Amino acid sequence: MTELAPAHRTAPTLASPHSPSPVSSAAVLAERARTRRRREQGMVLGSQVTIALLFLVGMYALNATAGNLTMPNPLDVLDKSIIMWSDGTIPRALGQSLTVLGLGFLLAAVTGISLGILLGGFRFVGRVFDPFVNAMNSTPGAAFIPLIIVWFGLYTEAKVIVVWNAAVFPILINTAAGISSANKDLVEMARAFGASRMTLFWKVMVPDAMPSILSGLRIGAAICTVGTVIAELTMAQSGLGGLLIAAGNRFQMDRYFAVVIVLMALGTLITALLRYAERRLARWRVSLQEGR
Question: Pfam families in the record, alphabetically (predicted)?
Fold first, then answer.
């Protein structure tokens, strides 16, 4: 009898040692993303340095062609800045301006967020007050300055009210928009578990609206800087605004630009800090979207 040959068994296929594993592929993609971010940051920084250098070159060129009255020499501005910092002129004025700005922004943040939560959380209240808020927001803040002077005088209290009036409405509107557009699924889920209105506000709607609230705070902080200078120009002259108008009246353009640089740096620093807080506190929303 013919003996049957044993059936051929297929040996299990082994993965090639050269084939990339999912873990290594993910690591490669992550490294590429980091490299791309570093390259982009380098390009952004390089572009910013280039723009700053072009600005300085333009200042030199305008100074050479039109004179110091039109544009001061950057070296003169630097010398004057060193003198004003060393003799205490700018630190003293900066302290006065920061007092007005800080109090006005704090008052605007508290009232704007509180009223925004109220108008965004209660639809009927929001519909009633919406035209009034828009009317006040569209009215130039300078239109209220004479009335503020009559009510509060010319000193710190009046300046704080001017700053508050400039910053409160962007904060209020952004907060109300964030609260009213809170995640409906989260709200319904919280209601299904028996959450009270207060719990819905502070545990669901306010955290979900945090990016909008922080965006309003960032816009309000930038406007606060402008409002502080306007208040110091139109009322009792003090702070950085007082230095600006004094230098402008005497056509001391090097002194004028030294104060302008401080204002630019102050506004940039405040905006950068709030933008950093916005990224940190809004990171959980990214995680939530990636988990869907």
Answer: BPD_transp_1 (PF00528)
Distance CA 201, CA 236 (A): 42
Cα gap 258→171, rounded to integer Å: 31
CB–CB of 261/77 below 8 Å? yes
Higher per-residue confidence, 123 vs 255: 255
Q: Report DSSP letters for 66-112, one per residue.
A: H-TTTS--HHHHHHHHHHHHHTTHHHHHHHHHHHHHHHHHHHHHHHH
- 0.70 surpassed by pTM: yes
Q: Is 12 inside any structural domain?
A: no
Q: Does any domain span residue 87?
A: yes
Q: How many whole angstroms separate alpha carbon 260 and alpha carbon 244?
A: 8
Distance, CA of 234 to CA of 243 (rounded, Å)? 13
pLDDT tens sequence across 114-166: 898 888 878 888 888 888 888 888 888 778 888 888 888 888 888 999 999 98
Per the structure, the complete domain to which residue 240 belongs is given by: 74-290
pLDDT digits (tens, 9 = 90+) for 123-133: 888 888 888 88
